[in-house]
Amino acid sequence: MMATRRIITLPPSLTGADAVAFARDGLKRGADVIEVRTDLHAPGDIDPDALARVMPLLVSERGKPVPAPWVQASWRVDRDVERAQDMDAPPGKLLASHHAEGPLTTTEALKRWSRPIPPDALVKHVEPMDGPAHLDVLLETQAALSQRFGAERVTVLGMGPVAIPARAVLSRRNGLEYVAMGGPWTAAPGQRLLDDVVREHRKAKDPHALRLGILGTAIPHSRSPRIHRQPFDRIDLAEDAPVEAVVDALLPHYAGFAVTSPFKMRLAKHTGSQLDAINTLVRRGSRWESFNTDTEGARAVLERLGAKDVAVLGDGGSTQALRLVSAEQGLALRVVKRAEIQAPLSGDWVWTWPDRVAAPENLRFQGARVAVIAYGAPGRRVAAEIVRRGGTPLLLGAAWFVAQARRQRQLWETAT
């Protein structure tokens, strides 16, 4: 794995001292470069010298010219290889970039780079992706540009709703990696989180190892990247994303995936599983084999709950695991869907709805114990909702997560 510089972009809402504080926080968390763009900040919004004292400053020309004080303080100056009248920058400072308006073939991409580039310039090529399979084209383009300019100078990036895993794969041969600090603002669609990238670079033992990852929606809280071997990617997709095409395109590059809400049932069907829902994919040569290690989590939760009769709120992928384990153990399990809730609920329950899904307004508990299988901040939010509705929450999400993750790790070690 070649050494890459991790770049964070200054959000447009931060100026002055707040901008410097953002840079310091990024440096502490492992960023290498702070980027300032002319479409996000006016000349007087920032003190370029103050930012450059924190870490190297990348100044990027986007529509408006780069102010001279920015150039003077900069480590590199990003200018578009096609749009700029010239690519003027002090010696050793040019980052020549091209931002394509649509997906390109490798031949088309190389034509965009026919203009002579100074030998000390870095090269950055960015394309929107028209689907997960476009990763193969980007890899081909990356190899061709590296051959032309030298691998240490080249960065190729994908953009769009399915670009996160593509960026992870491309990063192994990129000189620069643009990352998101987290929170609601990102500089471009498809950026990986800084914390995940830093973790990979610090802990990955084999630079050529197949990657692992977690597929889901709204998963910034997931602990999986922290406990599994690296490289492990957090692949956050929209609920309607083509997850089937994503896993097929990533088969050559990944040893396996953890699968979470809302893709457990869709990928069970896609992989031909006999189970209604799965949470683990393992590479077997030219195909995916699917498993549901949630049964280990369900077993841990039902044992902690210690009840003979259990009811479940929700009927998603987690509920399928609870059904299997309760049948093994001879427990009575009742699944209650949203439309079936009427009177206040009593007894022992398991809440399986993700915290992003609002519970029915008429849901009330009366003397009920309710197991929460979410963990972290989402688990705490669910617990607060249970208390508000009169129930007693039991935070068992960590027990579920650890039990199923242990089994996932064993399965991924068998990947071929």
From TrEMBL:
GO terms for molecular function: shikimate 3-dehydrogenase (NADP+) activity. GO terms for biological process: chorismate biosynthetic process; shikimate metabolic process. This is Shikimate dehydrogenase.
